Amino acid sequence: MPFIQDPGLVDEAKKAGWLTRLYRRRGLSGPVAAVLLLGFLLTPLLPGKFPTIVATEILIVGLFALSFNLIYGYMGQISFGHGAFFGLGAYATALLLRYFQMSAGEVSYFGFFLAILAALPVSAFGSLIVGFFCIRLTGIYFAMLSLAFGELLFYIVFSWYSFTKGDDGIQGLMPPPFFQNSTHYYYFTLAIVVMAALLLWRITESPFGYTLRMLRDNRNRAAFLGINARRVMLMNFVTAGIFAGLAGALWGPFQRSVSPALLGWAESGKAVFMTLIGGAYFLVGPMAGSIIYTGLNAYVTRYTVFWPLTIGLIILLIVLFVPGGLLSVIDQRISRRGTERESRERIPPEAAPGPENEA
Amino acid sequence: MSGKILEVAGLNKHFRGLHAVRDLNFVLQGGDKTAIIGPNGAGKTTFFNLVTGFHRADSGRIIFNGTDITNRPSHEIARLGISRAFQISNIFPKLSVLENVRSAVQAQMGKAFDAFGRADRIGTGETERIINLCGLHSKPRVAAGELSQGDKKKLELALALAGKPKLLLLDEPTAGMSLEETRETMALVDRLNEELNLTTLFTEHDMAVVFNHARKVILLHRGEIIVEGTPDQVRMDETAQRIYLGMHHR
Fold first, then answer.
1. Of A207, A228, A355, which is closest to B114 when you measure between CB atoms?
2. Longest dimension (CA), chain A
3. DSSP labels for B24-39?
4. pLDDT tens digit string along B134-186?
5. N or C: which end of chain A has fewer CB within 10 A?
């Protein structure tokens, strides 16, 4: 294979096997997801509790970013208020957990799962109301309105002290004994996030998923093909809100507390950052972004107080040099190599008998 | 299919001072193949925009197959069976040719909201048929945004056909195409009209295309119908000569 210069790449091509096949069938997200899953499964083997705790956060915030990307990467609108649904889910679970703790002393396993599930209808309802207004707009107006609604919900939670404890947040949340162990809770989170990601994969590869891409690429034309753009957008907004709420539900029992900041614009901005870092046009892009963002956040803050500066520089570099996100760089490298290989193996068109029919 | 498929009565549209469509009246019979011609700004595209619900009419009625479609939303009109191909190709650039057509087919099948089916297994037969019909079978995996101008127009037509239209509106279907592509595309339009009795209304600047392919011609000028008739009648008409055809003297 003289066209591969780097000897490392030759090795990689030889041992690729099932990953390469997965790439051909599913695109880059397939193999990346497989590698990430393996990594996540093995993380608790690392020494100390810290990596497991960081990985839990990566998964939860990663799921939040995945849900955001339904709106951004697939539907082509940018929401700066998506944190509101993450926060609503977190508060729904936290308030129920606190209620169970106060009435029964501790949370039963049934109560715990109920509290997690309660986040789904709450965030669905919240996103239905917000979505009802946002989907009337597109582009910058959509973004601004989502930001306004996000801040509105933030202030409601922030100032409704009797119900939400306002700025104090809700402290001292205790999951049932089994989930108090950080490794157990990590695997529980992993299971939920994997199921949610599979569901998201299913949705994005469904006809509905392609309808979203049509709206992203050319909204007017989609209407001329018989698609009710607003209804599609609303359904997607609520779907994204529910997945964000599920991520939020996992947050309280993990951090043992929730605070109004979870609904704020900074939280929404995290999803935007992570999606841009990882790559919006790949299903697993936001999760890859979460690994980088959350991972760096966890480790860089140990060594420097200049974390915001660091993340600012990273974003700057990505926007300037890799506008499609990290995964797009990898994808381009692989597909370029693939094309070279294919063009070498294929009969040159001049020599082929008659026109090519590969449909 | 015969009988009135489209009836336009007293249709008007103003853009501020401009009277873009002026008291338009005409009837399209099922199976017709009619061309609308006229200088730039005559109101051809505005008329298409009114029929497909993209613009709101100021007054008048548009009746399609017995249903009043005046000022109904575009997506409802599309679902009733009016498909439109655009003058400047209007496709989904990041999706492949296959995904473009397949998504349009799925929209026609009412699957746009199906979130759990597999997109790559629904409507694939119809998708393949349309791709072959429109001569795009050699590049199903190419991103639509990377196609040549002629191929984009073919895809444009493919998207319109995916809607299983009863009435096909083509806005300059051959603009930007090579002679060979023009011939192929118009042959396809003829075939669809003859074999499937698909009613077709098209605008075109190329008079050779108009007079070779239309069975009826409508000349529009400043939003008004000036002449209406067979290609020969329009060709011989003095007003038509003066306003428009004189410019295309060959």
1. A207
2. 81
3. EEEEEETT-EEEEE-S
4. 989 999 999 999 998 889 989 999 999 998 999 999 999 988 888 988 998 99
5. N
- Whether the predicted pLDDT of B215 surpasses 90: yes
Return the HEC string of A235-277: HHHHHHHHHHHHHHHHHHHHHCCECHHHHCHHHHHHHHHHHHH
Contact A251, A274 (CB under 8 A): no
Give A104-132 pLDDT, tens digit per residue. Answer: 888 889 999 999 999 999 999 999 999 99
At residue A22, the pLDDT reads 75
CATH of A7-340, one of 2.60.40, 1.10.287, 1.10.10, 1.10.3470: 1.10.3470
**Interface touch B113/A210, C-beta < 8 Å:** no
Asked whether the beta carbons of residue B78 and residue A223 sit closer than 8 angstroms, the reply is yes
Query: Do the chains contact at B119 and A231, CB–CB below 8 Å?
Result: no
Whether A235 sits inside 8 A of B120 (CB atoms) is: no
- CA dist B146 and B181 (Å) reads 18
Which residues are CB-neighbours of A57 under 8 A, at least 6 positions away? A254, A294, A298
When computed from its CA atoms, the radius of gyration of chain A, rounded to whole angstroms, is 22
The shortest CB-CB distance from A218 to any of B92, B132, B138 is to B92
Interface test with B, best of A70, A200, A210, A216 (most B CBs within 10 A): A210
Task: Name the helix (H) or strand (E) containing B131.
Answer: helix B124-133
- Do B84 and A224 make contact, defined as CB atoms within 8 angstroms? yes
Walk me through the domains of chain B, giving residue ranges and CATH numbers.
1-81+166-250 (3.40.50.300), 90-164 (no CATH)
Where are chain A's structural domains?
7-340
Does B138 sit within 8 Å of A358, measured CB to CB?
yes
A276-314 pLDDT, tens per residue?
A: 999 999 999 999 999 999 998 888 887 877 888 888 888
Closest residue on chain A to B104 (Cα): A225
Q: Is A205 in contact with B73 (Cβ distance < 8 A)?
A: no
Q: At what angle do helices A285-303 and A307-321 cross, to 10 degrees?
A: 140
Contact A218 B90 (CB under 8 A): yes
What is the per-residue pLDDT across B57-75, written as a single tens digit (0 to 9) for each? 999 999 999 999 999 999 9
Q: Within 13 Å of residue A191, how many CA atoms lie on the same side as its CB?
A: 6
With a cut of 0.95, is the ipTM above it?
A: no
Q: Choose the closest CB to A357 out of B103, B116, B137.
A: B137
B19 inside 8 A of chain A by CB: no
A295 phi and psi, to 5 degrees?
-60, -50
Q: Does B194 touch chain A (CB under 8 A)?
A: no
Instruction: Give backbone dihedrals phi and psi of A228, rounded to 5 degrees, phi first.
Output: -80, 95
Residue B168 is inside which H or E element, if any? strand B167-171
* B217 strand-pairing partners: B35, B229
Per CB-CB distance under 8 Å, the chain A contacts of B76 are 226
Name which of A209, A220, A226 is nearest B119 (Cβ-Cβ).
A209
| Structure-block tokens of residue A264 | 């704020």
Q: What is the DSSP letter of B81?
A: T
Residues in chain A: 359
Give the gap in angstroms from C-alpha B167 to the nearest C-alpha of chain A: 13
Count of pairs with CB atoms under 8 A, one residue in A, one in B = 126
Q: Cα distance from B231 to chain A (closest Cα, Å)?
A: 30
